[in-house]
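Interim report, section 4.2 (structural modelling).
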Amino acid sequence: MNDTLINLEATLFCGQTFAWTKEGNRYEAVLGGRHVIFEEQDFYALVTEDAMLSHYFDMEWEYDEAERVLSARDPHLAARIKQYRSIHILNQDPWEVLVSFLLSQNNNIKRIRSMYRSLSEAYGTEVAPGVFAFPRPSQLESVTEAEFRALGMGFRAPYLVSTIAQSELLESLNTLDYVSAKEQLIGIRGVGEKVASCILLFGYHHMEAFPLDTWMQKVMKKYYPTKDKTFFAPYAALAQQYLFHGERLGGRL
DNA sequence: GGCCAGGCCCCAG
DNA sequence: CTGGGGCATGGC
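Predicted structure of the assembly:
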């Protein structure tokens, strides 16, 4: 792990998590009820001695090899990888990912982050002055649809209510394969193909996932009109993250 | 001040 | 099974 590289800025703000803030070179979030705050230059020392964070930041996966394989396969992707290396896929709490991406539909990343914070401040545990954890299912089980609407959740409010009632389903997904787990998730109201893919990728590290949102559909049409996710196998998810992030921030190279 | 956003549900053909 | 309208809200 000593020379494992990570692009913290891109990893934490490429749309896979909505939990982090950055001021100057200081990163801050609440992970597993724990207030995590560090300066960029202290990151590698921190993850070396902290197993929970090392796992969260996915410091042991084969990013070097994956970046090499993907770069060799396609010049556009190679340019994106060079531009943003090394984005990691975080190991997040499936519950937070499920709710975050429920909120994501017909929405923008800025406002998803704001809604994530609203839920935390309204129902989560305060772990430090003014710093709130994302609420656990038990903290939301008696919240009504009207209360979620009053908090600005809009048409997603009923999805939140029914999802909270089904949250225990997440426990059973660890042992399922990708296809079976996705079937289970799509059974939840408000969870479709795309959101289920995101949950399985960001919450369960299924690196064969390939979420196709509006940005990725543009990318596929523009650069890969005759291809699909199999072109990027077995690293489809990582390719997707670079292509998505690059398209959002950089536009055409 | 319209337009649009990491979609999904629902209903018509 | 495929296509397209509707949906709450706020950032731009």
